[in-house]
Amino acid sequence: MAGDYVHGYDAAAGIRLADQANALAALLHDGTKYRAGDRVLEAGCGVGSQTEILAARSPATAFTSIDINEASLAEARRHCGHLANVTFRQADVTDLPFEDGAYDHAFLCFVLEHIADPLRALREVTRTLRPGGSITVIEGDHGSVLMHPENTAAHDAISCQVALQREAGGDALIGRRLYPLMTATGLVEVRVEPRQVYADDGHRDLADAFTRRTFTAMIEGVRSAALSRRLIDAARFDEGIEALRRTTQADGTFAYTFFKGVGRRPAASLQTGPLVHD
Q1: Could you read off the pLDDT of 112-124 as tens digits, one per residue?
Q2: Would you list the DSSP string of 16-27?
């Protein structure tokens, strides 16, 4: 069973997810493309921000995009209604209603961080892959934040989000665990690589779309919960948010690392060579 979604399901969260997907499309989706006729399970599609990018990159591929939250699925259907190669369905990633080997590939992006038992989820998704089928998993790690000017209050505010996500049954530091999770699932040919987003005055688009409107907005969104749980006092939290915003100025910098992993379901005879979509 998935844990509580600490970021919420309101309109602001949907806008933030869309901003993030668009800002990071080239960084995260480079190397992910599927063949015509392939069947792909997108587990945990949310409001469809990643779905639109995936389906557009592989227009002759059939995608089944699932999410446990019906409100998110309704938004995904509205957002991606123009895509003829996507079918949306409500389902729990830890208890999927699909037969063994139903899909050629699986894709999960920012999903495992919200699940109390990510290994169970990975095993369940892997079960739905045909022997030799591939899986792609992308997760972030809030412990990877680098910034200039450095500010301890900003890290304290980020730590509040990490703590609240942990209380909800998730793990905002899961990026560093991706390789051992995938290998523990029984996947083979596992490769995990860091993909860092870096913003400075020469990357104004990322400073605005990712640092300010995605990451800082996400941390700012837990202010009420952090204060009510007495994880931090209001002045310290607000100082941290201002420090994060400060990194988007002309002399500021901000970096965050995502981790992208690929692997295969074992088969009696696996062909060597790169994954078909990598």
Answers
A1: 999 999 999 999 9
A2: HHHHHHHHHHHH
* Paired strand residues for 1: none
Number of domains forming the structure of the chain = 1
Residue with tokens 């015509």, as numbered in its chain: 36
- What separation, in Å, do the N-terminal and C-terminal C-alpha atoms of the chain show? 30
Neighbours of 250 (CB within 10 A): 8
CATH of the domain at 109: 3.40.50.150
Residue 239 placed within a domain: yes
Note the pLDDT tens digit of each residue in 175-231. Answer: 999 999 999 999 999 999 999 999 999 999 999 999 999 999 999 999 999 999 999
Which DSSP string do the residues of 224-249 spell out, in sequence order?
HHHHHTTSS-HHHHHHHHHHHHHTTS
Exposed / middle / buried, residue 173 (Cβ in 10 Å: 0-12, 13-18, 19+): middle
Strand locations in the chain, DSSP E?
39-43, 62-67, 86-90, 103-109, 129-140, 146-148, 188-199, 253-264
**pTM of this prediction?**
0.88
DSSP secondary-structure letter at 47?
T
